[in-house]
Amino acid sequence: MRIDVVTIFPGVFPGPLGVGTLGRARERGLVDLAVWDLREFSSDRHRTVDDIPYGGGAGMVMAPEPLVRAVEAIRAARTAGGHSESPAVVLTTPQGERLTQARARTLAARPHLIVVCGRYEGVDERVVEVLEAEEVSIGDYVLSGGELAAMVIIEAVARLVPGVVGDAESVARDSFSEGLLDHPSYTRPAVFRGRAVPEVLLSGHHEAIRRWRAREALRRTLLRRPDLIDEAALDAEARAFLTELRNRDG
Ligand code: SAM
Q: Which terminus of the chain has a lower count of CB atoms within 10 Å, N or C?
C-alpha cells in the first residue's frame, strides 16, 4: 500500500510510524510512506499556505490552491509510475466521520491513500469538493493540527494490510474486529502480587480456553461498551452466553 501525507510539518514523520510493526512493514516494502511539504506547493516567495478568513474572525484558514496543487502533483507522480487506480484522499478534521475499525478496514482495501493534515482553523471548504476528499475524525476533541490524527489513521489502516501483522489471527481477534472488545490477557507468572491467572488458562484444554475467552470478551463488552452488543453479529453460542450473563447479572 502506498500512503502519501501532505503537511506543513514534514519533520514530525515518520515518528511512531517508523518503529515496531509499521516500521518493519515499511522496511519490507508492504507499506510505502511518503511525506510532502505543503509549503513546496505555495506560489509566493514566503511559502505561505494560509490566509485570513472571509467574513472576519479569529485565526487563519488553509488556502485551497497549495493543497489542491500538492494532491494533484502526488496523483500525477503516481500515474507516471504506472498506477491507474485513483487514490482516496483523506482529510483529517474533527468534523469528519469518526474513525472506526470498519472504516479502517475500508481504507486498507485501497491501494493508495493521500492523507491531508489540516492546521489553523482548518482548510478552505472548497478543497473537500475539488479533491472529493473523505473527511475523517479521530474523535470528538480538537487537536491543533492533523499530523497526530494522520498518524493514528495510518497506523490503524496499515496494520490491516495483509502481511503487516505477522499473525493474521491476532488482528482478526482484536477489539472491534468482530464487533466486540477483546478478552483479557495474562502472561507469567501464574500468581502476581497475590492475584492468580484464571485456572482454565493453565489447563491446556483448548476448547475450554476458547469458550472462556469468548465469554469474557462478551462479558467485558457488555460491561464497558454495551452499545457494541446490539451491532455485533453474534453466533448461537455467543447469544446463549449473553442470555446467561444478563440473567445472572440482571
Ligand atoms: N476550527 C476547526 C473546527 O472547530 O472544526 C478545528 C481546526 S483544528 C484546530 C486544526 C486541524 O487539526 C484540523 O484542520 C484537522 O486537520 C486537525 N484536527 C483537529 N482535531 C482533529 C480530530 N479530532 N480528528 C482529525 N483531525 C483533527
A: C
Residue 171 and residue 166: Cα distance in Å, rounded?
Answer: 9
**121 is annotated as an active-site residue:** yes
Ligand 1 atom closest to Cα of 59? 1
pLDDT in tens, 152-183: 999 999 999 999 998 887 788 899 988 999 99
CA dihedral of residues 27, 138, 232, 198 (deg, nearest 10): 70
The answer to whether residues 84 and 140 touch, using CB atoms and an 8 Å cutoff, is: no
pLDDT at 169: 77
**Residue extents of the structural domains in the chain:** 2-158, 173-249
What is the predicted pLDDT for the residue at 137?
Answer: 98
Q: Which of 75, 94, 119, 147 is catalytic?
A: 94
CATH topology of domain 173-249: Trp Operon Repressor; Chain A (1.10.1270)
Q: How far apart are CA 186 and CA 238, in angstroms?
A: 22
Q: Which CATH class is domain 2-158?
A: alpha beta
Q: Where are the beta strands (DSSP E) in 128-210?
A: 134-137, 191-192, 195-196
